[in-house]
Hints:
By secondary structure, the protein is of the alpha/beta class. The protein has helices spanning about 5-10, 25-35, 45-55, 75-85, 100-105, 120-135, and strands at about 15-20, 40-45, 60-65, 90-95, 110-115. Strand 3, helix 4 (about 75-85) and strand 4 form a beta-alpha-beta unit.
Amino acid sequence: MNSTSIAALQQNKRLILVVEDESIIRDFVCEILGDEGFITYAVGSADAAAKYLEEHADAVSLLLTDVLMPGSINGADLANLSGDKWPQIPILIMSGHETPESSGVTHNVTFIRKPWSFGQLLDGVEHALQMHKTG
């Protein structure tokens, strides 16, 4: 991410809600994003993320979610719920098995395929945030 993008993000909200059921990946994503100056809040299920959004959606600048997760809803369901209730929050989906289309996501989202590189993750975050600003 270039310094212009980081400076622009620092003037705005920077909280990324990270939703990933595998703790190693969840922690790794949070570490990478933290190193780039983002604040992260990490949960292990889409159910927990939906609950967090119900209470704190106004503080979230990006939803980053995996698709396949245990619980009553998966990441695709979460993306649809978020897009319906909180359309101001951009969504970045990551998956090694599904695409947003194949998993039933009905909203415009950014997608990165697992396994991703640092650069692909950061480019995906930047793309989601910029795409949402420009509509």
